[in-house]
Every structure is written in C-alpha cells, then in structure tokens.
C-alpha cells in the first residue's frame, strides 16, 4: 500500500513528531511505501490566490482553479501534492487540535490542493447533471486517517464532554472534506493530554499510533451515508423515515454510529 503522511506541526521534536516517526516506521516494517508532506518544513504557502492559478484572469476563483487544473497550470507545489495523492492508496493527516480545528497551514493545504475539478466539482460522465460527492468522486477508493494530539483530557472530548465528541468536532474535515471528495474515512485517533505526557503515556500513545496505522488497509471506515445512495431527497435533506425525529450531525451516520474509536 502507498501511504501519504501529511504532517502539520511546527516542532519536529514535539510529541507529534515522535508519533509521526513511530507511524512511518510501523508502515515501513509492514512493507508499505510512504511519502511525507511536512508542511512546516516545506514552508507551505497557506493562502490560495491568483498566483496559484496561472493565466485565468476574469474567471471566478472556482472557475479559475478548475481551468488551471485542467490546463496543468496550477502552481508547481500544488501539482506536486496532486501527484502524491494520486500515488497514494491512503492518506494520514496528522496535526495538533487547535481551537477545534486544523492549524492554518493545513487548512491552506486543503484550500490550495483540493481545487475544483480535482477534489470537488466532479460530475458523473454517465449522468452529466449529477455531482459526484459524499462517498463518490475523484478520490473514491482512497482511505484517510486523521491523527490528532489534543490538550484536552479524553472524557472532555467524549459523547457528553464539554468539548464535544471527537468525530463530531472533526465533522467538517472528516465528512465535509474527505468524505465529500470520495475518500473512505477511518475513525479518527486522538492522543489526549498531549502537553502532560509522561513516560507511561508516551509509550501508550506510540502503541496506539502503531496499532491504528497497522489497520489502515483493513479497519472499517466511518459509516457515512452516500449522497447518491437514496438516503437524501432532491434538496439533499435526509429522508424522514431515516433516523425519524432525530437531527444533528450524527444522523448522517448509517446504522447508528455513536462515537470515534480511539
């Protein structure tokens, strides 16, 4: 299996850096091939602008990005990331949980790399009016695993914790970005209390990362509903007979999924 590891932490000597190295070593020992996008080390440019899009003046930004992608005139650093994703069977996204989300540099990676025509705005060639997203699309068949370090203790990111349940806190990334683009999304993995890790917790965190990357090719993905599988009406609203009377983000899980596997 080919695995792209996208790493977004400014400190190579941090716990995150150690866990990245543990994960990569585990993948290599299992015979998998890996490539790494270390965004801070790459000094990744985090803002999408017209400089990325070649000669596409006069278009809206989304139209310009589609044209630049189709013409092969996107910035060289963006095209290099496309090559890595195309090569990969699975992508690991590792970052510290800052203000309930990704560091800006990783958000900028998605803004610049997941452009129209590549990760969204993809239509069904057999049915040109039908958009392929939420379980379908250009990145379908690839797997994604999100690995975060969090200062919070585990119960506070649980089903009744004040910080919100982890998979729902990460819903915009897991469902709204990765699943939207067609990737099969594995339950996220978190290392809690990352700023208070002693030797015992360090060893446990390393073992957890090794275990989860070992299952990258076989663990069951989150059971999100597909857009085009019949669960949603023409307004993309969940049909009333499914999860009747319920609302909220978790209605978009099929089969009553109740929490992330940590």
TrEMBL record:
Domain of life: Bacteria
Keywords associated with the record: Oxidoreductase
Residue ranges constituting the Flavodoxin-like fold domain according to the UniProt record: 1-207
Transmembrane segments: none
GO cellular component terms, semicolon-separated: cytosol
Family stated for the protein in its record: Belongs to the NAD(P)H dehydrogenase (quinone) family.
Protein name: NAD(P)H dehydrogenase (Quinone)
Organism: Amycolatopsis arida
């Amino acid at each position: 299996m080919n695995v792209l590891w996208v790493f977004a932490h400014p400190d190579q000597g941090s716990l995150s850096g150690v866990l990245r190295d543990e994960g990569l070593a585990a993948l290599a020992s299992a015979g998998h091939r890996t490539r790494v996008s270390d965004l801070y080390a790459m000094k990744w440019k985090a803002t999408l602008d017209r400089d990325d899009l070649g000669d596409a003046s006069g278009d809206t930004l989304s139209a310009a990005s589609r044209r630049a992608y189709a013409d092969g005139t996107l910035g060289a650093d963006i095209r290099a990331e496309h090559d890595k994703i195309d090569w990969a069977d699975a992508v690991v996204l590792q970052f510290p949980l800052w203000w309930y989300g990704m560091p800006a540099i990783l958000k900028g990676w998605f803004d610049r790399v997941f452009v129209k025509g590549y990760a969204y705005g993809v239509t069904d060639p057999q049915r040109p009016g039908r958009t392929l997203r939420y379980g379908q699309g250009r990145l379908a068949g690839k797997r994604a695993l999100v690995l975060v370090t969090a200062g919070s203790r585990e119960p506070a990111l649980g089903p009744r914790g004040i910080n919100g349940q982890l998979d729902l806190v990460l819903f915009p990334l897991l469902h709204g970005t990765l699943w939207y683009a067609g990737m099969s999304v594995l339950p996220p993995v978190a290392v809690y209390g990352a700023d208070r890790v002693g030797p015992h917790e360090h060893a446990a965190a390393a073992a957890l990362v090794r275990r989860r990357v070992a299952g990258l090719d076989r663990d069951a993905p989150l059971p999100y509903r597909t857009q085009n599988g019949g669960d949603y009406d023409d307004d993309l609203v969940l049909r009333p007979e499914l999860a009747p009377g319920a609302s909220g983000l978790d209605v978009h899980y099929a089969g009553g999924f109740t929490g992330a596997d940590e």
